[in-house]
Amino acid sequence: MIGIWGIVNVTPDSFSDGGRYLDVERAVAHGLLLREQGAAVLDVGGESTRPGAERVDAETEQRRVIPIIEQLTAAGAPVSIDTVNAATATAAVKAGARIVNDVSGGLADPEMRAAVAESGADYAIGHWRGPSADMYAHAEYRRAAREVAGELHARIGEAAAAGIAPSRLIVDPGIGFAKAGTQNWDVLRGLDEIVALGPRVLIGTSRKRFLAETLGASRGSESLDEVSEARRDLATAVTSALAVRAGVWAVRVHDVATTRDALAVAHAWEG
Question: pLDDT tens, 129-147?
Answer without folding.
Answer: 987 777 778 889 999 999 9
